[in-house]
Amino acid sequence: MSSYISWVIKVSSLASQIGRSFAIAKKDMLIFYLKGPVVIMGLLFPLFLFIAFLIGRDLSHEYLFVALIAMTAFFTSTAVGPTIIPWEARSKTFERLISTPISITTVLLGDMQASFCFGLIITFAISLSSIFLHISLNLLIFIPAALLSLLTFSAMTILMSSYPPTDVPADVMMLSSLVKFTLLFVSGIFVPLDKLPGYARAITYISPLTYLVDALRYSTGLNGFIPLWIDFLALFIFGILFFALGVMVHKRVLEERFM
Amino acid sequence: MNVIEVEGLTKYYGNFLAVDHIDFEVKKGEIFGFLGPNGAGKTTTIRMLTGILRPSEGKIRIFDMNLREKMLDIKERMGIVPEMANPYIDLTALQNLMLVGRLYGMKKGEIKERCVELLRLFGLYEKKDKKVRSFSKGLKQRLSLAMALLPDPVLLFLDEPTSGLDVMSARLIKRVIREENRKGKTIFMSTHNMADANELCSRIAIINHGRLVAIDTPEKLKKIGERHTVIELSLEPFKFDAERITSADRIELLGDKVKIYTRDADSVIKEIVDYAKKEDLKILSLTTEKPSLEDVFVYLVGDKSE
Ligand SMILES: Nc1ncnc2c1ncn2[C@@H]1O[C@H](COP(=O)(O)OP(=O)(O)O)[C@@H](O)[C@H]1O
Ligand SMILES: [Mg+2]
To answer: Which has the closest alpha carbon to A102: B5, B51, B189, B113?
Structure first.
């Protein structure tokens, strides 16, 4: 009986922490969605990259669509997240936030939702371009692949904001951009996997973006190079790892943010 | 009943000992003042009590629960105004308050009611939809206190709540602290301002270099000073050699005046007269007084050589 009660208490406090993470997410959206760096990194960057990618090449609509969506999903869902905690430390709002009855995990879960929603809105808006490109999109693959990858990339920003425990958002911005571009270039967006030599292909497997690109290929009717279920599984595992590791590092370096 | 119990609380920053094995209790319903000069360890102590920093050693019990084990349960019942915390400047006053309410798991209707009440109390109602970016320091601090009070906590931590504020805001905040205490809240506040501590607190702990040097009511602390005398001296031409006054406990140079703390006024005065004679100095004035609470504070935290 008492173990039943303690179980009920645990579940209800978990539910209430999740509820409170929505409040964190809403706060992030109100504050960060319109900040200059977010707009630049999240909207303008993928746009220019895509144009650069497009120019002087004769590519099928499907191939273009896959690249467009993959870049959009990747850059929009990683635009907001990395700088939230450093920004809170810098503007001296972090101490009050974590002195309220919420855990660090709740804070990070909220920040992750804010990243996710930004990515979701923009990515799904951009995916309407499939209509003009006359692509017959398999939504049963496209929607879960997009959602899962947006979650995974959002979780990645939790890890990005964790170390170093700085209160200079620009530092995190630079480091996270470095990581993002690396992951982009080794992702198989620019060159299909089957055109890559073996060692290069092995490298692409470390980028979560590779699995999104591959899943998106399936959704547009192109052939993929990795079994679809492995694309999903890999994105899922990356997401869990990013979040768990991010929470762990954040907890460990928490004190250093007050030094 | 004790609301806070602290035993052997210690914090190192690397090798630097910021808080050194302090023990104290805070009783239900009191305003407990934590008084000390800058760098004494007040903020570090409050950050340990509010779960921001992990103590290097020692125990903290709040509401009779171990802080580390029951962190969230304990935090549900406390409100905090950190030393340098700002509200979110990109949000409005109302949005800041709503956020806090939701982080404490309050219901929407309940939050709204409480917001109106607090915005009125702090003279912020007209500005409720203005972004905090445009607020003065005093207004931000009022909002900060309103945010801490929103969930109606039974225990309130205030880290230097009136430091650097305009007179009106400081007064308003002190009035609210007193009122909230009368309604039953226990309040732990740090300050480096003697007058504030004297005016507000039922008990005061004096901390210096991370160590507690005294805990008592303001009245009893003044009694520590009773055996002492403060002698103020001014000489012409002004010249003073502290080494020559051997019966002094503590000597302070204030411009062209000297303040001497001693338990033996008779010997000190004789030494002064001797010194003045030998050096051929004119004694312009020499007064003796019983120490004020401020003198006690200075006496307790000051270095003899200062
Ligand atoms: N994060 C930190 N890292 C290293 N030293 C610190 C840190 N925070 C405070 N200190 C030092 O610890 C001492 C106590 O600081 P603090 O608790 O802020 O004092 P107070 O609030 O009484 O002014 C000071 O000497 C300060 O320089
Ligand atoms: Mg301080």
So the answer is: B51
A259, B107, B169 from B65: Cα distances, Å: 28, 26, 35
As for how many domains chain B has, the answer is 2
Helix (H) or strand (E) holding B262: strand B257-262
DSSP SS3 for B254: strand
pLDDT of residue B134: 94
B153, B244: one domain: no
Structural domain for B150, as ranges: 2-217
Within 10 Å of residue B149's Cβ, how many Cβ atoms?
Answer: 22
Residue whose pair of structure tokens reads 């090798």 in the numeric block = B15
Q: Are A146 and A70 in contact (CB under 8 A)?
A: no
CA distance B222 to chain A (A): 35
- What pLDDT does A1 receive? 59
The answer to whether residues A71 and A127 touch, using CB atoms and an 8 Å cutoff, is no
Instruction: Return the number of other C-beta atoms located less than 10 Å from residue A4's C-beta.
Output: 8
**B301 within some domain:** no
Least CB–CB distance from A20: residue in B84, B105, B147: B105
Q: Is residue B222 part of a domain?
A: no
* Inter-chain CB proximity A99 and B82 less than 8 Å: yes
Summarised one tens digit per residue, pLDDT across range A159-200 is 999 989 988 888 998 999 999 999 998 888 888 888 888 888
The domain limits of chain A are: 2-258
pLDDT at residue A69 tops 50: yes
Nearest ligand (C-alpha, residue B38): 1
Candidates A164, A17, A132; CA nearest to A68 is: A132
On chain B, the residues whose CB falls within 8 A of the CB of A30 are: 90-91, 95
Domain shared by B152 and B270, yes or no:
no
Please indicate whether, in this complex, the C-beta atoms of A13 and B72 are within 8 angstroms of each other.
yes
Size of interface A-B (CB pairs under 8 A): 74
Angle between helices A2-32 and B93-103 (to 10 degrees): 160
Rg of chain B taking only CA atoms, in angstroms: 23
Q: Are strands B78-81 and B250-254 parallel, antiparallel or unpaired?
A: unpaired
What was the ipTM of the complex prediction? 0.91
Task: State the Cα–Cα distance between residues A219 and A35, nearest whole angstrom.
Answer: 33
Q: Under 8 Å CB-to-CB from A114, ≥6 apart: which residues? A: A24, A25, A28, A29, A32, A80, A81, A84
Three-state secondary-structure class, residue B6: strand
Q: Are residues B122 and B68 in the same domain?
A: yes
Helix segments in B88-236, DSSP class H:
93-103, 108-121, 137-149, 167-182, 194-200, 218-224
CB A115 within 8 A of CB A78: yes
Whole-number Å distance, alpha carbon B38 to ligand 2 midpoint, is: 7
Residue A31's closest CA among A108, A119, A111? A111
Nearest CB to A255; choose among B53, B95, B105: B53
